[in-house]
Design a protein that fits this description.
The chain contains 29 helices and seven strands. α16 packs antiparallel against α22, α17 packs antiparallel against α18 and α19 packs antiparallel against α20. By secondary structure, it is mostly helical. Helix content is 61%, strand content 4%.
């Protein structure tokens, strides 16, 4: 009861944040679909599982026929979604239960993140600043867009696991801290290999401490043991056996496990028998690294080139290098960079050097170093991969809370009322400088960030072409295989019974390559691809970015000519009332003769 009363302010902050997020997410909640292709395809995968598809089978059979698409997403994060759906479906119906799960689970993830932020901050600053840090989670735009309702992809759970990993570094019980750290990193990597850079950073810090001081081995030893055991268990839980696992480099597989166990075994032996000799510790570390790389090379040499090293070159050229969220910040529009980095990350970059160089009362410098270390590496990764800014943003919140608190206290000490009010109000500029600058620019220039796909109705009252409401028109067509833009594929799978040729997911690269060839080839070559893939319809929206790229590079290709109203006789237009959908029926060769 005492703990509950102490957390009441945090509960109220969370509830208020939830209310605001539900309001701002209502356009997605009302349609029952996630924010983007990943959320939508995760929703489809969840439905398939609840509909009877095996736990161990995550293949999407309605994508890329006849090949189908093996997904790299284990079902682990679908468990809480499935539980809510199964519990609430008898009361609300399946559609409402799905929407409820997609609202509740991200908000629970947000609550866990706020608790962890508060706990991390309390290790360094007082409880008031810790509560403020948790409350400021609502202003950390890179994180909050991953924790809002209808965002059911794995990014929200990655934020939680990153915070949990950081928090274990503060635990005084080194054995327990190491066990939980290893298990956390194992779960993070099982969900997504995007956690690899920071996982390496956490382990590297423990290794460095052990190399410098052989007595600093307890946390490292148990972290390695826990990581190896939990990684193996999670792999078997997700795949059932090694025989059923497919050979891909984008998820933990047998080759990764073998490399982990090989290098880890050498490290554990070194920790046990070489802790009292610096040169033996260094030798053991080097030998462990060489052993792990040799093991990975022996079983999966292609994986040394990265998770996407085997991707079709055509798909890499036309799609992969244009996926903004996976690119460095210098490839992003300035508004995106300002919004994502111009908040807690920006403030932390200025406050951290001050805190490290000045003696701050009641601030544990050793613990501050741990926070600085985690934030530094998260920030470096965020510069290289845009979507990684979420973790950097939450790691920066304790530093931001301290800065805001200091400014607010000093502002309230100003005697002149007008100056005090202005100084106090300026705290808002400190909290969200990037977002406010972009909003000011948009207001002056008249530009809007809203996209039609995010709202069911456009400004002129027309149903948005790429909205779920519009794409449901395709249900009027006979069940078929549809060629459609990469990003429209998942919502078509979600809202119709049709199959699609591609989606914007890299394991689908053979179908993605065929789509690129389809729309950039001449009529005859395009028809051969349509026949080979058994495509019954082509469906898209006007001014689709992917297809505009085909026009620019291949104006005489299929889509370039269709956009100029040049149509082969074997494509018949299909029109829907009150919809801008562009649909053509493909006439099979035997019928067209």
């Amino acid at each position: 009861m005492e703990r509950l009363r102490g957390n009441l302010p945090l509960i109220f902050v969370w509830l208020a944040t939830c209310a605001l997020l539900i309001i701002f997410s209502w356009s997605q909640i009302s349609t029952g679909i996630g924010w983007g292709p990943d959320d939508q395809l995760r929703h489809v995968q969840l439905r398939d599982w609840l509909g009877g598809q095996s736990w161990f089978d995550t293949v999407q059979y309605r994508i890329g026929e006849p090949d189908s698409q093996p997904m790299h997403w284990p079902r682990l994060i679908e468990i809480p979604l499935a539980l809510i759906i199964l519990l609430m479906s008898p009361l609300l119906g399946s559609a409402a239960a799905e929407t409820m799960a997609m609202v509740v689970v991200p908000l629970i993830t947000l609550a866990i993140a706020m608790i962890l932020i508060k706990n991390v901050t309390e290790q360094i600053f007082d409880s008031k600043i810790a509560l403020l840090a948790a409350a400021l989670t609502a202003t950390a735009i890179p994180a909050i867009i991953q924790l809002r309702p209808m965002r059911i992809d794995h990014h929200g759970w990655q934020i939680v696991l990153a915070l949990l990993a950081l928090s274990t570094m503060f635990w005084p019980d080194k054995r327990k801290g190491g066990i939980v750290l290893g298990a956390t990193l194992a779960l993070w990597l099982a969900i997504s290999l995007e956690g690899l850079p920071l996982s390496v950073a956490f382990i590297a810090l423990l290794v460095w401490r052990w190399v410098i001081d052989g007595n600093q081995s307890i946390r490292l030893f148990w972290a390695l043991v826990s990581f190896a055991i939990v990684s193996l268990l999670l792999f078997l839980l997700s795949h059932g056996s090694f025989e059923k696992a497919l050979s891909f480099c984008d998820a933990i597989g047998p080759a990764h496990l073998f490399a982990c166990f090989s290098g880890g075994t050498v490290m554990l032996v070194a920790i046990k028998f070489a802790s009292q000799n610096l040169f033996l510790r260094l030798g053991g570390l080097i030998l462990a690294g060489v052993t792990a790389l040799a093991a990975l090379y022996s079983f999966a040499p292609q994986c040394l080139g990265g998770a996407f090293g085997t991707m079709d070159p055509l798909v890499r050229e036309y799609w992969f290098i244009n996926v903004k969220e996976g690119l460095p910040v210098w490839h992003q529009p300035w508004k995106t960079t300002a919004t994502l980095l111009g908040g807690s990350i920006f403030v932390a970059l200025f406050s951290l050097p001050y805190l490290l160089n000045k003696a701050v009362e009641s601030c544990d410098r050793e613990k501050l170093f741990l926070l600085a270390y985690g934030f530094f590496w998260a920030f470096i990764v965020s510069l290289l991969v845009q979507r990684a800014t979420a973790v950097a943003a939450v790691f920066a919140l304790p530093l931001m809370a301290w800065t805001v608190h200091q400014i607010f206290v000093r502002a309230r000490q100003i005697r002149r009322p007008v100056s005090r009010i202005v100084a106090t109000a300026s705290v808002i500029l400190i909290i969200m400088p990037g977002a406010l600058a972009v909003a000011l620019y948009n207001g002056i220039s008249g530009e809007s960030k809203a996209r039609p796909s995010e709202i069911p109705v456009t400004l002129d009252g027309q149903i948005a072409c790429d909205s779920a409401v519009s794409l449901e028109h395709l249900n009027a067509l006979p069940k078929s295989n549809i060629a459609t833009p990469f990003d429209l594929g998942p919502v078509i799978l979600l809202k119709t019974s049709h199959s699609v040729l591609p989606t914007s997911h890299h394991r689908n690269d053979r179908a993605m390559a065929d789509q690129i060839r389809l729309f950039t080839s001449d009529f005859e070559a395009a028809r051969e691809i349509l026949e080979a893939r058994n495509i019954g319809y082509i469906a898209t929206c006007p001014d689709e970015a992917e297809f505009n790229g085909y026009i620019k590079l291949h104006p005489q290709g299929l889509w370039g000519r269709l956009a100029n109203d040049e149509k082969p006789e074997w494509l018949l237009p299909v029109h829907f009332r009150d919809s801008d959908l562009l649909v053509w029926r493909v006439v099979p060769k035997e019928l067209g003769k």
